[in-house]
Design a protein that fits this description.
This protein has 110 residues and is α+β, with helices and mostly antiparallel strands. The chain folds into two domains: 43 residues; 55 residues, no CATH class. The protein is built from three helices and four strands. A hairpin with a 7-residue loop joins strand 1 and strand 2. The longest helix is centred in the first third of the chain and has 35 residues. The model has no long low-confidence stretch (mean pLDDT 92).
Length: 110
């Protein structure tokens, strides 16, 4: 910013102008945030992956079971995998979920 005026009346005027401008900017920010929240609320949530692998607790995060996408028993420690990866995991001996039966969905009879 350039040099400020030296006298109090002009400094007070500048302060008032800055306050009004700041208030206007804050109103625009609030409006933009409301519009963004409305947009987020109207966007459909992403579809769950077709297949997920459940990971063990710990830093290793070893695969412990295969689930159909959206299965609640997969828990939060799960990641999406492709159909081919799910088939490969099940044929390699990874446990299928007893509730959602991904082996049956994939046509793998154990």
């Amino acid at each position: 910013m350039s040099e400020l005026p030296p006298d109090l009346p002009r400094l007070r005027t500048l302060e008032t102008w800055l306050q009004l401008t700041l208030d206007q900017v804050r109103r625009h920010i609030a409006l933009a945030e409301q519009q963004a929240a409305i947009q987020r609320a109207s966007d459909p949530p992403p579809a769950p992956p077709e297949w997920v692998v459940q990971l063990s607790v710990g830093s290793e995060g070893r695969p412990i079971a295969v689930h159909v996408g959206g299965c609640a028993s997969a828990g939060r420690r799960a990641r999406g995998i492709s159909r081919d990866q799910a088939i490969r995991a099940l044929t390699d001996g990874l446990e299928p979920c007893a509730l959602c039966r991904p082996d049956t969905e994939l046509g793998i009879l154990g």
